[in-house]
Amino acid sequence: MVADVVVENASYSFDIPFSYRVPGRMEGQIRPGCRVLVPFGRSNRSKQGLVLRLQPQDPQSQQLKPIKMLLDQKPLLGEEQLWLLELLHQRTFCTYYEGLRALVPSGLTFRLKLMCSLGEARPQQPTDKQRQLLDYLSAKKKPVELEHLLEQLELERGEADFEQLKFTGGYDHNYVTDNYAKGNVRSIATAYCKESGIGMEVSSDCPCVQFYAGNFVKDENGKNGHVYHERYGFCLETQVEPNAVNVEDFHSPILLPGEEYSSETVYRFFVK
């Protein structure tokens, strides 16, 4: 199978579909409208792309560069939106990716950079894939971006065998923040989209924040006909540690009779 892919950050004169070979492991999963990671140019630098069309494989397809990674489990654009994207590209002076940003909510172009490093806890009997991950991270002195890690080890997101991610189908984890003091509102998290320039900073007097990646969102209808699926957005929810009521060393969530509770969390949006 061959995919016609347009890549991000292309100049208008070079903004054309490029043909890539679809690896066997992606057949049955990849569809027009999905985003992918592809090798581009002589240096084979990884770039994000959007699949416009799929075509049957011919004898010369094996000479094409293969797609490195499938980034969307379901298409970002439907058939009508892909038709409109082609129309925008033909009738206006916009690139495919500029048209894409006009068709989808800005949040869908956010790229979460997830970094991986070795922690203290290790599986007692690691699988072959887990051992491969452990060996690779042990050789690195700095955290490694998840997309780079999976690319280097030729793994799909679902193949990484992270036990914690299997529990909830993705990220739904509590993080204990730095510099906590009762009543001290300080910056605890920042999210930023390089493509749109939109960012969000979270400040709070809470000791923890829950990062939830929308793992259970399914077929939710939004504005302008957009349909949202799992991991199309994320939440940063301030709180104390889960199960804190039963763990003495955690921050206490108990409110006694006559006491008052107040907390402050600020979500600041900016453009840069």
Tell me about this structure.
With 272 residues, this protein is an alpha+beta fold. The chain is built from five helices and 15 strands. It has a five-stranded antiparallel sheet with strand order 2-1-4-3-5, with no helix packed on it. The chain has a three-stranded antiparallel sheet with strand order 8-11-14, with no helix packed on it. The chain has a three-stranded antiparallel sheet with strand order 9-10-15, with no helix packed on it. The chain is globular. The model has no long low-confidence stretch (mean pLDDT 84).
Q: Could you list some keywords that capture this structure?
A:
272 residues; alpha+beta; five-stranded antiparallel sheet; three-stranded antiparallel sheet; 5 helices; 27% strand
SSE pattern: EEEEEHHEHEHHEEEEEEEE
SSE-based structural type: alpha+beta
Beta content comes to: 25-35%
Which percent range fits the helix content?
A: 10-25%
Dominant shape = globular
CA-atom Rg in angstroms: 22 Å
Give, in spatial order, the strands making up the sheet with the most strands: 2-1-4-3-5
How far apart, in Å, are the first and last alpha carbons? 41 Å
**Major beta sheet summary:** 5 strands, antiparallel
> Can you give the mean pLDDT?
84
Q: pLDDT below 50 for ≥5 consecutive residues: which ranges?
A: none
Number of helices: 5
Number of strands: 15
